[in-house]
Amino acid sequence: SRIKLGDVTPHNIKQLKRLNQVIFPVNYNDKFCKDVLEVAKPALNHVLNICEKDGTFDNIYLKFGSEIIETKKNYSKRIQPADAHLLQKNLKVPSGQNADVQKTDN
């Protein structure tokens, strides 16, 4: 089964902080959590726009609008689930395919 997490909003930022405390060995301060709301998505959109305009990138690896292309079983020794996913977002649409078909909304 897959778990899908929604967007980070001012209403669930405390849950994000708590998840990070439980899952990851690093504690993030309140400023980091605030920055996630204000900076992370616009910054990523900026990078995506630059890559798409450049035209030399076929794909990039991340979560935002990406699909799982590979799963590394038992990747983590301290985090459950232990599997890690390699994510890819295609920037170039194969010829003959509609661009809307290639987009995902993760």
From TrEMBL:
Family (UniProt): Belongs to the acetyltransferase family. GNAT subfamily.
Organism: Aotus nancymaae (Ma's night monkey)
Superkingdom of source: Eukaryota
Lineage, uppermost ranks: Eukaryota, Metazoa, Chordata, Craniata, Vertebrata
Protein name: Uncharacterized protein
Entry's Gene Ontology cellular component terms: NatA complex
GO BP term, pick one: mitotic sister chromatid cohesion
InterPro entries according to UniProt: N-term/lysine_N-AcTrnsfr
GO molecular function terms listed in the Swiss-Prot or TrEMBL record: acyltransferase activity
Keywords per UniProt: Acyltransferase, Transferase
